[in-house]
Amino acid sequence: MDERWNELVKPRRCNKCHGALKTIEIGKYRCTKCGEEMLDNYGKVREYIREYGSAPAVEISEATGVPTSEIKKYLQEGRLEYVPRH
Ligand SMILES: [Zn+2]
C-alpha cells in the first residue's frame, strides 16, 4: 500500500474537539480525547459499500461526497471489495 498517499488524505485532528486521532483500522480513526470516530475518504467509501453493497462510483460519490476520480483510484488499486452493478 502507498502509505505516503494515505498520509495525505488522513484527518489529523478530531473535528469536534481537535484532539489527536488514533488509527483503529485503515481509513478509520478515533479521537483520543472524546472518542469521536472519524473516517477518511477511503473509510467513507468502504463503509458505504459495507452498508449498501456495491454501487456505481457516481452513486457512492453522491452519497459520501468523495470525488469519483478518487473512488476509481481506490478500485484500481484494489483497495475495495467491489462488484459494479449494471
Ligand atoms: Zn475529539
What this model shows, in words?
The protein is α+β, with helices and mostly antiparallel strands and 86 residues long. It has one domain (3-76). The protein has four helices and three strands; from the N terminus they run αβββααα. The chain has a three-stranded antiparallel beta sheet with strand order 1-2-3. Strand 2 (28-31) and strand 3 (37-39) form a beta hairpin. The longest helix has 12 residues, at 41-52. The N and C termini lie far apart (29 Å). Zinc ion binds at residues 14, 16-17, 19, 31, 33-34, 36.
Summarize the entry for a quick read.
The protein is an alpha+beta fold and 86 residues long. Helices cover 42% and strands 14% of the residues.
Q: What is the strand tally?
A: 3
Across the major sheet, the strand order is 1-2-3
Query: Which hetero compounds are present in the coordinates?
Result: zinc ion
Helix content: 40-55%
Radius of gyration, whole Å? 13 Å
List the defining traits of the structure above.
single chain, binds zinc ion, 86 residues, three-stranded antiparallel beta sheet
